[in-house]
Design brief:
Elements: H1 20-44, H2 48-51, H3 65-72, H4 76-107, H5 113-122, H6 128-141, H7 148-173, H8 176-184, H9 189-218, H10 221-226, H11 234-237, H12 249-279
């Protein structure tokens, strides 16, 4: 008959963590980051007179006048429709093309493979400001200014390197044996990719799509110079409220809420898929 041994840990030997200062730092950083955002949201529900009061009013009667003005007079809903079309289309094309490109780089060997990989990576190193002028001239030459085709093509090319390098690592984490079994059963490489690899990559592809959608939605520099009345998106529309002789802070706040609100709600709804896709490959 075996006797169970009870291990008693002395209170003196138990580690005592007194990390209240960590929580204080986190709360301070949180407040510094949140207060400006909260103030912008509050400004959106103020009147023009209330935004100019000094000291600022903390408690006030909310007003939706600014939202009505930017929707009726400045066409913010039209800009939102343009943003949705451009962001969704560029996300679809960049993720679709990038998935096949990442699979080829992860699975096949061909001459110049490393050079191609490095060339794709260097496309993300170039700052947007450095290439706006030549891209503007190219768009002007081919008649692509203020067109959906031009801006979608540009956003697809911009986000493609990010998609390729993000998915390439996930493809490399999937054992080749899974595809080899499918090949033994008579499938082609494309069949093995569609039936075996693609279902395993669905979380990662979803995460990449979310990333690209957010980047395309928030892109400002190229949208400011390459879009016009027919394709103007939400981010550059903010300039409308700042180029006049007097800045309308209530309209700026309402525009900021309309720009950030949809993408924020989208991230909240897909955060589980986003985290799942990012964590794929961390544990085999």
């Amino acid at each position: 008959m075996t006797e169970s041994k009870r291990v008693i840990v002395s209170p003196k030997s138990a580690p005592v963590e007194n990390n209240w200062w960590v929580h204080m730092i986190l709360v301070t950083v949180f407040m510094i980051a949140v207060i400006p955002v909260l103030w912008v949201v509050m400004t959106a529900f103020m009147t023009k007179t209330q935004t100019q009061v000094m000291p600022p009013e903390i408690f006030f009667k909310p007003s939706f006048n600014a939202f009505g003005v930017i929707v009726r007079q400045f066409g913010m809903l039209t800009f939102m429709a343009h943003s949705i079309i451009i962001a969704v289309a560029s996300t679809f094309f960049s993720v679709t093309i990038g998935t096949f490109c990442a699979y080829a780089l992860a699975r096949f060997s061909f001459p110049g493979k490393e050079d191609v990989s490095f060339w794709i990576l260097t496309n993300r190193m170039m700052p947007a400001v450095a290439v706006i002028l030549p891209i503007f001239m190219i768009f002007q030459t081919f008649g692509l200014l203020d067109t959906f085709v031009g801006i979608i093509f540009l956003y697809t090319a911009m986000q493609l390197p990010f998609v390729v390098w993000m998915l390439k690592g996930y493809f490399e984490d999937i054992p080749r044996e899974f595809e080899e079994v499918a090949l033994v059963d008579g499938d082609t490489w494309l069949g093995a990719f569609r039936k075996v690899v693609l279902p395993l990559m669905r979380p990662s592809i979803t995460a990449a799509s979310i990333f690209v959608l957010i980047l395309s939605w928030n892109e400002y520099a190229f949208a400011l110079f390459l879009t016009g009345t027919n394709t103007r998106t939400l981010p550059p529309s903010v300039v409308t409220f700042t180029v006049s002789t007097e800045v309308s802070f209530d309209l700026l706040g309402a525009a900021a809420v309309i720009i950030a609100g949809p993408i924020l709600l989208f991230v909240v709804f897909v955060q589980k898929q986003f985290v799942r896709g990012l964590s794929m490959g961390m544990v085999r």
